[in-house]
Amino acid sequence: MVMDSSSLLNRLLTKGKFRHLQAIVRLNDLRNISRAAESIGITQPAMSQLVSDLEKLLETKLFLRHARGVEPTPAATELITVAGHIIKHLEDGAEAISAQIFGARYFVRVAATMSMIDNLFIQTLPEFTKNYPEIQVNLNEISDRELDEGFASGEYDMICCLRKEVLPEGWDFWPCINDKLVAVCSSSSRLGQSKDYSSRDFGQETWLPNHARTASRRGFDYLKRRHGWDNVKTVNLTSRSISLTLAMLQSRELVTVLPRSIVKRGLGDGSLVELPLEIGISHWQLGIHWQSNTASPATVILLNALKAHKVI
Q: What is the longest distance spanned by two Cα atoms in the chain?
């Protein structure tokens, strides 16, 4: 007999364990039973038993084994999405309880993109945590793709990123960084050490384009159109990873386009060089989204500390 949703829920509530959820999330991440078991500190047989117990509980197959590891079934994919949220909330809850045990009385949950962390939180949080030991800040770095979920989930008190074109209901925005796109290369590269070049020279360089849906890629496409670089050379790699992009610049003779907020540190320490190429795409604002009507006193204190820090 096929179980309905109520029966499935009752089984999970009465016989399911958090360890089951942790096991399938890690197994989905790593797709290998041995590595997944090691990552949560159990043996391979114990991991296999957890999965088997959950499959018996739900009366459905969750993972298919093959020569390279395992693959989740459609049923597992649905369950893993829910399990991931539950595990994350458990982690946040454990952080909050631990913070209270060790003296913190208030908790602020923050999501921020890498550029906001680099340009705002690195400079602000050392002093803030010293001045406000009673406030525990839980800061999670998130990608652009995770932003919509962050606003919808309600799990953050503050989301620091590119200004939303349409602010979600109940959210306000405070701008703190006026960003722009710039073309950069490594200072150790041939181009980075040159002082005599033209736009035609740039078109003969090898470029590292970013993912098609990023502002950086739009900036690169703009340069191609404006300067007529019909046959510009590119690396056969596209990625959203900023760390990978910066590593590629240091290891090869490459040029790329990135937001200035992301390369600010490299320009400051001399490892990167900004090239004299104007990218005619409107500037945009990075800043802090928060819910002013429901913000806790601790959230307001952190917000004011961030506002007091002058950035770009």
A: 77
CB neighbours of 178 closer than 8 A, spacing ≥ 6?
283, 284, 285, 312
Q: Give me the torsion for CA of 277, 282, 287, 289, rounded to 10°.
A: -150
Q: How far is CA 288 from CA 2, 174, 209, 260, in A?
A: 48, 5, 28, 18
Strand ranges across the sheet with 106-112 = 135-141, 106-112, 158-162, 284-290, 172-179
Q: How far apart are CA 283 and CA 7, in angstroms?
A: 54
DSSP code per residue over 141-161: E--GGGHHHHHHH---SEEEE
- The DSSP H or E segment spanning 118 is none
8 A C-beta contact, residue 14 and residue 7? no
Distance CA 20, CA 135 (A): 33
pTM over 0.70: no
Asked if residues 229 and 179 have their Cβ atoms less than 8 Å apart, the reply is no
Q: What pLDDT, in 10s, does the model give residues 174-219?
A: 998 888 999 999 999 988 888 777 767 798 999 998 888 788 899 9
Q: Is 57 in contact with 17 (CB distance < 8 Å)?
A: no
Structure tokens at 143: 């990608």
Contact 256, 189 (CB under 8 A): no
Cα Rg, the chain, nearest whole Å: 24
| Residue 16 token pair | 């399911």
Beta strands in the chain (DSSP E): 63-66, 69-72, 106-112, 135-141, 158-162, 172-179, 181-186, 206-207, 233-234, 255-259, 272-274, 284-290
pLDDT tens digits, 10-32 = 888 888 899 999 999 999 999 99
